[in-house]
Amino acid sequence: MLIGPGCLGLVTELVEMETLASLGIAFLLFSLGTEFSLTELQRAKRVAVFGGLTSMFGVSVLTGTLARATGLVKSLPTAIALGLALSLSSTAIVLQCLPKQDSLPTETADGEITIDDPKARKVVLALLVIQDIMIGLILALLPTLNGTPSEFTKEFMSAFLRLGIFVVLSLIVAEYVLPYALDRLDKSQSQEIFTLGIVGTCLIISYVSERLGLAIELGAFVAGIMMSESKYRDRVEHSVDSIRDVFTSIFFVTIGMMIHFSYFYANFLRMFALLVIIFAVKGFVMTATCYLFGDLPFRASLASGLAISQAGEFTFVVASTGQSLQLFSTSETRMINGATALSMLLTPFLITYMRRFGRSIATAK
After folding, report:
1. What three-state secondary structure class fits 231?
2. How far is CA 262 from each of CA 6, 294, 336, 345, rounded to the nearest angstrom?
3. What is the pLDDT of residues 177-229, one digit of tens each?
4. Residue 48: is it exposed, middle or buried by C-beta count within 10 angstroms (0-12/13-18/19+)?
5. CB of 307 within 8 A of CB of 94?
6. What does the alpha-carbon distance between residue 49 and residue 203 come to, in Å, rounded to a whole number?
7. For 46-96, what is each residue's pLDDT tens digit?
8. Which one of 33, 284, 287, 353 has the lowest number of neighbouring Cβ atoms within 10 Å?
9. Residue 16: its H or E element
10. Exposure class string for 231-243: b at 16+ Cβ within 10 A, else e
């Protein structure tokens, strides 16, 4: 925040930083993909597909409606775009706050599972996964919001077709090309060559995704899932850890530089109102989703729902794209960026509080 154009102005051009930040999120999603295999995704398909899509629809409708009713946005297309942007949670923040599987005690003293339980963690990851997958469709649909219903339908079908083509190509590569390529990299007996090969594969698949009109981050996530089915899964994940951490750090620095202190001071009430809408709507919808579709106890559903009740890194992407398409004004974009950054900043404290709250209830019993 201090070095950005909104404060000291030491850095005024964010284009290069945003490019590096997008690579950070791509590597983070690649890492998530290696952890969340196709087998696990199939087991969690009820919460991922039905719960994920239902929750995104509910959040989009409720946040867009409330934002327009409170005067935060003026037009219906802007409200729809805002709802779509806020339906996306932060994979980057949540993954940093949740422990690795089996690394912490997963039950309270009364036997109730907590947010650290593997089952609760898989529910959270499944919901985050479907949101990350849907970013490609959301970005493809944004240009049609100012158009006619027929244009919207045509673009939706086109985006869905491109997504299908990408998935089919990925399955073919994962089945017939990737095992041979990984074996060749392993036979080099060089960790540096293996790491370069993994990074190159991730970038190539991400490039194909972008060329098909989908998001780079979607391609990186699919590349991770492809790697997760191989016998080199653990080695692949270890190989990109340091690279992921560096670029993810750049991403968070870029977020800070997007916040303008002067706008923050002059429009604090508008930003705070949007922040309340985000946490209230997403907290309710995500808790209900975890409880109804994830088969979690209420306490674990509440903790899991609040853990993913923030707006996410892709909200910045949607806001920036919406501004370029004149769906958002400069003032509205700064409001969205500010509220999103604040929600991400508060998330670690919220997760920590819910974890302690659950344990205190168990102790009281």
Report:
1. coil
2. 7, 43, 15, 19
3. 888 888 888 888 888 888 888 888 888 988 888 888 777 878 888 888 888 77
4. buried
5. yes
6. 27
7. 888 889 999 999 999 999 999 999 999 989 999 999 999 999 998 878 877
8. 353
9. helix 15-35
10. ebbebbbebbeeb
Residue type, 196: L
Tell me if the pTM is above 0.85: no
pLDDT (0 to 100) of residue 18: 63
Residue 17 and residue 94: Cα distance in Å, rounded?
Answer: 22
What is the distance, to the nearest Å, from the Cα of residue 42 to the centroid of all Cα atoms in its chain? 20
Is residue 205 within 8 A of residue 155, CB to CB? The reply is no
Alpha helices (H) in 36-113, listed in sequence order: 38-43, 45, 52-69, 76-86, 91-97
pLDDT per residue as tens digits for the range 109-143: 545 567 777 788 888 888 988 888 788 788 878 88
Contact 55, 309 (CB under 8 A): no
**Closest among 59, 30, 54 to 221, alpha carbons compared:** 30
Residue 113 phi, psi (nearest 5):
-70, 155
Residues 352, 355, 358, 361, CA torsion sign: negative
Helices H / strands E in the chain, number of each: 18, 0
Task: Indicate the SS3 state at residue 238.
Answer: helix
* DSSP secondary structure letter of residue 192: H
**99: which DSSP letter?**
P
Q: Are 51 and 301 in contact (CB under 8 A)?
A: no
Model confidence pLDDT, tens digit, residues 232-283: 777 887 777 777 777 677 777 776 776 667 767 778 889 999 999 999 999 9
Run of H or E residues at 284: helix 268-292
Three-state secondary structure call for residue 104: coil
∠ Cα 184 187 194 (to 5°): 70
For 59, list phi and psi in degrees, rounded to 5.
-65, -45
